[in-house]
């Protein structure tokens, strides 16, 4: 298989722990070891939003575009949901007894799956 890469996004950041792409906007969501989550516009090569999520690494983050949300999982074992337009935190709760490693979002139903080492 051969990929024809036309453009790349390159930015100097802390260690990137996960990435996700928005289904309709030209955005990439990156969760960082620093505890921040950034949204980058891959067409303009600019950072458009930053969320200060935790003092610990954010290992997983996903868009929930139908709600204008992002969901994050971090090393403090918390899941947090933010509205990416208003930066408002929608909810936060303890989800695991160890680091949250991955998140999966159902495309149409209100289901979120998370993975951890616990």
TrEMBL record:
<feature type="repeat" description="WD">
    <location>
        <begin position="93"/>
        <end position="118"/>
    </location>
</feature>
<dbReference type="GO" id="GO:0030126">
    <property type="term" value="C:COPI vesicle coat"/>
</dbReference>
<keyword id="KW-0677">Repeat</keyword>
<dbReference type="GO" id="GO:0006886">
    <property type="term" value="P:intracellular protein transport"/>
</dbReference>
<dbReference type="InterPro" id="IPR001680">
    <property type="entry name" value="WD40_rpt"/>
</dbReference>
<dbReference type="GO" id="GO:0006891">
    <property type="term" value="P:intra-Golgi vesicle-mediated transport"/>
</dbReference>
<protein>
    <submittedName>
        <fullName>Coatomer subunit beta</fullName>
    </submittedName>
</protein>
<dbReference type="InterPro" id="IPR050844">
    <property type="entry name" value="Coatomer_complex_subunit"/>
</dbReference>
<dbReference type="InterPro" id="IPR036322">
    <property type="entry name" value="WD40_repeat_dom_sf"/>
</dbReference>
<feature type="repeat" description="WD">
    <location>
        <begin position="9"/>
        <end position="50"/>
    </location>
</feature>
<dbReference type="InterPro" id="IPR015943">
    <property type="entry name" value="WD40/YVTN_repeat-like_dom_sf"/>
</dbReference>
<dbReference type="GO" id="GO:0006888">
    <property type="term" value="P:endoplasmic reticulum to Golgi vesicle-mediated transport"/>
</dbReference>
<dbReference type="Pfam" id="PF00400">
    <property type="entry name" value="WD40"/>
</dbReference>
<keyword id="KW-0853">WD repeat</keyword>
<dbReference type="GO" id="GO:0006890">
    <property type="term" value="P:retrograde vesicle-mediated transport, Golgi to endoplasmic reticulum"/>
</dbReference>
């Amino acid at each position: 298989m051969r990929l024809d890469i036309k453009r790349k996004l390159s930015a100097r950041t802390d260690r990137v722990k996960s990435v996700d792409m928005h289904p309709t906007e030209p955005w990439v969501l990156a969760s960082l070891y620093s505890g921040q989550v950034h949204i980058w516009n891959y067409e303009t090569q600019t950072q458009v939003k930053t969320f200060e999520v935790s003092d610990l690494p954010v290992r997983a983050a996903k868009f929930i575009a139908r709600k204008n949300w992002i969901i994050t999982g971090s090393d403090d074992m918390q899941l947090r949901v933010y509205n990416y337009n208003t930066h408002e935190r929608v909810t936060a709760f303890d989800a695991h007894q160890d680091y949250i490693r991955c998140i999966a979002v159902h495309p149409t139903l209100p289901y979120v799956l998370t993975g951890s080492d616990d």
